[in-house]
Amino acid sequence: MRKEIIVCGLVMLSLVLASELIASQKQTLQIEGSTTVGPIADAFAEAFNSKYSNLDITVKKTGSGDGAAALVDGRCDIAIMSRFMKEKEYKKAVENGIFPVAHVVAMDGVCIVVHPSNPVAQLTTQQIRDIYQGKITNWKQVGGPDLEIVAISRDTSSGTYETFHGLVMKKEEMAAGVEYVNSNPQAHARVKTTVGAIGYVGIGFLDANVKALKVDGVMPSRQTIATGQYPVARPLFMFTNGYPKLGSMIYKFCTFYLSETGQEIIEAKGFIPVTNY
What is the CATH number of domain 28-107+235-268? Predict the structure, then answer.
């Protein structure tokens, strides 16, 4: 009997030690995608790292298309995207046994920006489209100085590009002379350092180094974007493979925007929360 008690005790001790070992093991969270949603994901990751010592979060920001591809291929847990998934991406996902679920975490406006020295204060969507199609090539054609326009666009894999291409360009082709950059920071930097430049960035990237224009008479702001008045607005997403298991780290991360802390982070990054506490 004593021997059986000792054996049972050892088994119980082994189970306890095993459970403690599992609990102490690092959990990982792989996040990939949009440079627009990137600052939100980075800030969420920082908040989670301070709360969960056994959590290792990686945030890779190379574009919404890359995020979609990573989720479809099973290379990430969460795809951060500034556009909705395309039909062909969904089709490939299902073929791979992946079932994307969208979580809207914030609202954003695609802001048209110029160099701060440019006196032009507003453009219509038609004028912006004409600029990017090469029909308007000098700022004097829209009430500005006699200065050549340098049109800056995001690359075609970008969700910001997709929004601009759909809402402003009406899916029409851009001129051959348009310059493409890979991220919001690059678009911002190019406009900041080029007197004749025009570009577009998410509202979270506005500062004193670039000048936002009114579009169709409406200035991009938290209020005009939240109310739908600003004509170039869009939701920001986190996509997961199916709805995440309740209580899982993926679930906690994708629903963090619903908390007051999550909302404060989104506001601090210059975006518009979908909640209003």
Answer: 3.40.190.10
